[in-house]
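Supplementary Text 2. Reproducibility record for the structural model of the 409-residue chain.

All settings were left at their defaults, and a single model was retained for analysis rather than an ensemble. We include the record here because the model underlies the residue-level annotations in Supplementary Table 4.
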Amino acid sequence: MDWNDTPAQAAFRDEVRAFVAERLPKRYQRDAEGFPSRNDWLEDRKSGDPERQAADAEWSAALRDKGWLAPHWPKEYGGAGMGPSEQFVFNMEMTEAEVPTAKAAPQVPGLALLGPTLMIHGTEEQKQQHIPKILSGEVFWAQGYSEPGAGSDLASLSTRATRDGDDYVVNGQKIWTSGAQFADWIFALVRTDPDAPKHRGISFLMMDATTPGITVRPLISMADEHHLNETFFDNVRVPVANRIGEENRGWYVGMTLLDFERSNITAAVAARRDIRRLIERATNAEASKSRLASLPSLRDQVADRYIESEVMFNFSLRIISIQERGMVPNYEASVSKLFGSELSQRVALTGTKVFGLYSNVWEPDSPHAAIRSMPLHNMVNRIPATIAAGSSEIQRSIIATRGLGLPRG
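Retained model, structure tokens:
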């Protein structure tokens, strides 16, 4: 494996760095101590604050001018047409710089999921109506997939859509609906044939979030943050024209993706960055709060996390090298996801141990907080990391059956 950039990759890396230096609005820049902005770029648009909305508009326009708001989209739809290698470099540099990108909710469902699905399965009318508004950010989308009884086993979903003339009448519930409190539209998988095998009889619908009968209720996380929701559908009428693809073929439509970058490089960079920041703060600016000097066992743990972050980085390089050869990573992506999600939890936990009781301080601005409470906030926020986007149990099953060839059962 060659760890070095090709000349083209090196030039593109320089281009991304120069772009961030020149175009990133002050609101989203690091402060004097090198800490990232804690502002949520994608919430700024809905904030009602003219200053926040202006910063959002400036950064969105900068990314859109380069096609980098949707780097994986084809150029004819306003994206950058990036292949795996370019996406790898782009995501790596944007994560290292800690700048906001559209990989964060609530922009992800529209850009990463619905847009590519429409490009392949949508009618011309659907494409013209929705794709420009997804790219401009005029319309936010939420994803209605998971249900209380259908998470990892998504094909067991039970939300019903019954045909009534030119409409479907939708009844049921979705859960973990990221960003639904901001959403203008929702796309959902619904069951249109309850008698068909579970992977069949499912259709893909788009719904205006203001349609009567749609109710969004917040799910407040243990970090006291509102990102997730539960969404209820009570006799919601959805035009048949809002179905993408054929009736009862929604499962196959919903699995469509054009995001070729599966290397998980953002997780690798974030782990490496968090470890570097931990070491720097614990040995310099916040050494008086640190227990590293007095506990060799903690130094060993920090060293372990550093080594693990390098292992994670090499998992990412392995996947991108597979994609560069025109192959599709399978169990390799599961290995990366499993290792990366568990590593993010270990890094956060190690950070809290390094600063001991100081890590109990929740308020970032407290003089007693360690690294502005980042280790504590990260530890709480990353608890779902081993559940979201495919639980660790699912990833281990994939690795066992597809990677090791073990039998199911």
